[in-house]
Amino acid sequence: MTPDVKHMKWWGWGEEGVFFNYLNKPQFAPFVKKALDIDLRPRKIDTIAFDPDTVPDSTLPDDLAAALVAVTSPDQVSVDPHERVVHGHGSSVTELLHVSRGDYGRLPEVVVYPATDTEVAGVLAAAVEHDAVVVPYGGGTNIARSLQLDPAEKRPIISLDTGLLSGLRELDEDSGLARVGGGMQGPALEEALNDRGWTLGHMPDSFTHSTVGGWAATRSSGMQSDKYGDIAGIVRGMTVVRPAGTVTLRPVPSESTGPSLREMFIGSEGRLGVITELWVQVHRLPAERVVVAYMYPEWKSAVAAIRQIAADEVPTTFVRISDGNETGFSLATQKAATTLKKKLEGKAQAGLWAVMRRRGWNTDQMCISYVCFEGLAADVAARRKAVDAIARRHGALSLGTGPGALYDQKKFDTPYLRDFLLEQDVMGDVSETAAPWSKLNGVHRAVYAAAEKAFAQLGRKGWIMSHLSHSYHAGACLYFTFAFKAGEKPDAEYALVKTAIQQAFVDAGGTLSHHHGVGMEHAPWMEQVVSTEGVALMRSLFDAADPGAHLNPGKVIDAPLTLFDNLE
Amino acid sequence: MTPDVKHMKWWGWGEEGVFFNYLNKPQFAPFVKKALDIDLRPRKIDTIAFDPDTVPDSTLPDDLAAALVAVTSPDQVSVDPHERVVHGHGSSVTELLHVSRGDYGRLPEVVVYPATDTEVAGVLAAAVEHDAVVVPYGGGTNIARSLQLDPAEKRPIISLDTGLLSGLRELDEDSGLARVGGGMQGPALEEALNDRGWTLGHMPDSFTHSTVGGWAATRSSGMQSDKYGDIAGIVRGMTVVRPAGTVTLRPVPSESTGPSLREMFIGSEGRLGVITELWVQVHRLPAERVVVAYMYPEWKSAVAAIRQIAADEVPTTFVRISDGNETGFSLATQKAATTLKKKLEGKAQAGLWAVMRRRGWNTDQMCISYVCFEGLAADVAARRKAVDAIARRHGALSLGTGPGALYDQKKFDTPYLRDFLLEQDVMGDVSETAAPWSKLNGVHRAVYAAAEKAFAQLGRKGWIMSHLSHSYHAGACLYFTFAFKAGEKPDAEYALVKTAIQQAFVDAGGTLSHHHGVGMEHAPWMEQVVSTEGVALMRSLFDAADPGAHLNPGKVIDAPLTLFDNLE
User: Fold this and answer.
1) Which position among A290, B47, B421, B531 has the lowest Cβ density within 10 Å, counted as fewest Cβ atoms?
2) Does B423 fall in a domain?
3) Are residues B177 and B100 in the same domain?
4) ipTM for the complex?
């Protein structure tokens, strides 16, 4: 019997029975028609039946199987076909494209669920002894192909599911620090903390299924990072089990003890060991939380306003602006007004539209912005007042708290959209970067130009939109969503568009990824971003730390499968 | 002719002609008498004449000399005895003790001043080819023995002075980012930035002589880190020249590109290469700057107040509290009142003392606190009001802005005190840690107990005092200053006391150093702090990145000279 660990659909994102639905969004189908020249059709399938007969038998060697059972228990070791398929991929769009069509790719020979550090150490020792590969698996949400397995790998592959390494183990209320199992998923942790009046506040799009250890291993960032920090700031201590021993880093607020081991494990994507436990910063639940929406006439003034909020050190939980395209998309995904309250809001919105029209705003260029404030009521009021003033100086109109409440409810729905599009034969995905403030507008322009050029090469209508989020003193993250109608070779077409966008990031002074990680998807650009000698140094570290290449090899650098492979 | 690069006294801290003076501080001598049972005597020496004849000739091999001149120029390569002595040590108290007595220790064979990345690469190539060691030298201010040379090193040692790798090279005003030469010293950089309306805001005690590259290489933090960040937060991009090539990390606000190379170089103390250029965050000079002083009845309530300021996210530039002993020391180092203004302030102070006495405060336990606010006048006023309220709730009295202005003036004077004490045959030094809020009081108690025990073992009266500074969400830094009358074996006595304090840090849940680095001084505790396997991983990195051990070997881990060696 396999342990009771929650997994996503084997063939797509999220929970069975949950989907993106456009039928209750009257403006969505016309929007897609205009944007992609596609006639949407109602969803045909609610699920894809899993057929174990389509899965090749595991070729796990008997001695390795015996060794894994010996260090755990029979219930913690599985060669079940469904288990192996679930653990054989992450959530990148190309992986889901193939898996949902029954093309599983390289599957792990076995899935193991260690429940303690000792068991993890046992699994690693068995892997080294039997010359196997270990790929740590958290929630399976990674979209940078950090979990995809190399078809050319001849050695047995063990998927090490961290699901049993879970639980809120300690809460230091004086310090705002919690000790948490690496395999704990977002909702379970947040619930356990909320019960005691605390919150982690780390809210990546993948929150509902991803794990704390996975966040650390992929250098994640949540939508509320302005207040709560990126995962590198949130994680203050950790335990990492390695084949040669266990690294324990005690939780301290900051330290000067040489090169940061903490910052080596963060982002290591399984290549340096298995992150089994973390000390994370937690915050008391705020007395008040408000999300205020603003509408700016155009992108540049909105970016300037956000830059000013950062420069003035106004404490915000998040600040976000959607560009003209994304604002248009947002308006198109609003549900039909069904309640009196919404009708009244509709009237208020109509009044705002009148003001905007009077001011001569171009509705295609308007940018909606959300700013979240948390704290004592008086602090929230003071901070909101400060941001109101900055927004006004940059030409914005306040839309109040109505749209913000809606934004807060919908915030984890986006990943379902990708599967919906896939079923409509549309390749849709996201890609994100970070850049200094001085380069943000240039990156934005360059990515649009690159995407449009790629769509033109495909000879198809495509769509791209963007928002700015995660602001820092020196810059911010730009997050792009793009889509196009798939043709004969969706992989290769995707590669063409994605490659164009990534290259535009790098050429315009941005980085490869702000918070999605590298995996195999972004590895080919690493030399351009951290320099050839930087990659060489990283390779020295990986080779020295894992001389037998047992730990998720081929991720971050030296990827065996690149996007370019799909072009052939 | 040697390049015009500013260096400190060859035998002590800072500039020739600048000293700590106690004669204008009427309460200082009685204080020292009480604290250390020592009768101070006026300073006997103003300087120590340098005698080149006491320095053994350089044994620099001719071929290496020729190679170094070939990659730079004759003017950039020096075997001058004074140069070699200056570059043969950092500023740890044991190094200064010996150097000031003419016991120079291991000296570098040669000092080189490369002026470009290409020249640095040339020096490194020459070192590898001729099997020499390279020790990068910035301002020489390090007190963790990161610059001390190993007497057992048989290979030629090249001191690579970064002084010509200087200059504010680019200022990105939109992003608040500056590109700076690694060898630029604090005052020159701050002046260049101030001229254009900007500030770095990084103010370590060593500021007047230390360099940007040195700050990065030792994982430094300045007294204003609450606002401006630790150096790891300030540095967003960098260039590091290594024997195999040059690593260039572009400036971005945050990124998810695998293990952080930036965070590997920060704190690397020369072991991974030479940091030649940095992109650092800079801020506009604040419209207003105010330092407000508060007096708390005792330590615990002051710590609780500071924790609350952090939890409420009140933007401050720094928050600092001195414990009872340090508050007493502060009062004892005040200059005699000579102006009417000061007399009036004295009267105001007398009024405060009356209030304190009425409240029954124990004057030995009172803690002075400084809080700095910067920004627009309205923001400063609002933040000060918020801190005033928190301070009041924790029993504090506001002392206004008078003492704070004084604090601001004196802030870089402390290091001179150590030399003054040395001349009085007193070993005085500092040691600092960081810990979670829940452990700070325990660390404070444990360090006092450990120091008192060590003083008792020496059979001498000793002094210890502390302040809390650098506050974070999860904890803060505790900074200790200690002193005792030296006996026959000042090295060994120092080792006994310092060892006791460092061990107390680690045992009580603190870290080894918050911002002084590791060097050789703290290396023996690394396994206790980052675990045995953590040190093993770091060793893998250093060995793989520098297989010939040419780059400042024996620092951070595997130190050839430990404090314990001095005990024998």
Assistant:
1) B47
2) no
3) no
4) 0.96
The domain of B294 spans 288-411
What pLDDT sits at residue A158?
A: 98
Catalytic pick from B228, B407, B448, B479? Answer: B479
CATH code of the domain covering residue A71? 3.30.43.10
* HSE value, Cβ hemisphere, 13 Å, CA-based, for B195: 8
Q: Is residue B554 part of a domain?
A: no
Residue A359 has a CB neighbour count (10 Å cut-off) of 10
B234: pLDDT strictly greater than 60: yes
Q: How many residues does chain B have?
A: 568
For the stretch B377-384, contacts whose Cβ atoms lie closer than 8 Å and that sit 24 or more positions apart, written own/partner, are B377/B287, B377/B288, B379/A312, B379/A313, B379/B315, B380/B288, B380/B289, B380/B290, B382/A382, B383/B314, B383/B315, B383/B316, B384/B290, B384/B292
> What's the rounded Cα separation, in Å, for the pair A99 and A81?
13
User: Which residues on chain B are in Cβ contact (under 8 Å) with A267?
Assistant: 256-260
- Quick one: tokens of B156? 């030629």
Whether A140 maps to a domain, the answer reads yes
- Known catalytic residue: B472? no
Nearest to B303 by CA among B215, B230, B395: B395
The reply to whether A457 and A548 lie within a common domain is: yes
The answer to whether the CB atoms of B258 and A538 lie below 8 A apart is yes
Instruction: Mark whether A436 and A562 lie in a shared domain.
Output: yes
CB-based burial label for A414 (10 Å; 0-12, 13-18, 19+): middle
Structure tokens at A247: 């690294």
| The domain boundary residue, chosen from A236, A266, A284 | A284
Tell me the sheet residues that pair with A435: A476
Q: Measuring CA to CA, how many Å separate A389 from each of A305, A375, A475, B78?
A: 10, 19, 21, 60
Among A69-83, A554-568, B294-308, where is mean pLDDT lowest? A554-568
CB atoms within 10 A of CB B476: 27
* Residues A341/A406, Cβ–Cβ less than 8 Å: no
Residues of chain A contacting B554 with CB distance shorter than 8 Å: none
Find the mean pLDDT for residues A422-437.
Answer: 96
Minimal Cα–Cα distance from B275 to chain A, Å? 13
Residue A244 token pair:
């040669």
Same domain, A298 and A390: yes
A317 in a known ligand binding site:
no
Q: Alpha-carbon dihedral of residues B23, B25, B29, B35, nearest 10 degrees? A: -150
Q: Judge if A423 and A554 occupy the same domain.
A: yes
Question: What was the pLDDT predicted at B332?
Answer: 86
Q: Cβ distance B491 to B192 under 8 Å?
A: no
Q: Do A172 and B534 touch (CB under 8 A)?
A: no
Contact state of A257 with B516 under an 8 Å Cβ cutoff: no
Query: For residue B282, what are the contacts with CB-CB under 8 A and spacing of at least 6?
Result: B171, B176, B177, B178, B193, B198, B199, B200, B201
Q: Give A42's pLDDT tier (boundaries 50, 70, 90).
A: confident
pLDDT digits (tens, 9 = 90+) for A200-253: 999 999 999 999 999 999 999 999 999 999 999 999 999 999 999 999 999 999
* One domain, residues A337 and A425: no
CATH number at residue B343: 3.40.462.40
For chain B, the domain total comes to: 3
pLDDT band per the 50, 70, 90 thresholds, residue B86: very high
User: What CATH number should be reported for the domain holding residue A179?
Assistant: 3.30.465.10
Pairwise CB contact (< 8 Å): A259 & B272: yes
> At which residue do the structure tokens 């490194």 appear?
B124
- Both A425 and A404 in one domain: the answer is no
Sole residue written with tokens 């093309």: A103
pLDDT value for A355: 81
Same domain for A254 and A279? yes
The predicted-structure confidence for B342-400, as pLDDT tens digits, reads as follows: 655 666 667 777 888 888 888 889 999 999 999 999 999 999 999 999 999 999 999 99
Mean per-residue pLDDT over chain A, rounded = 94
Q: Quick check: is B88 in a domain?
A: yes
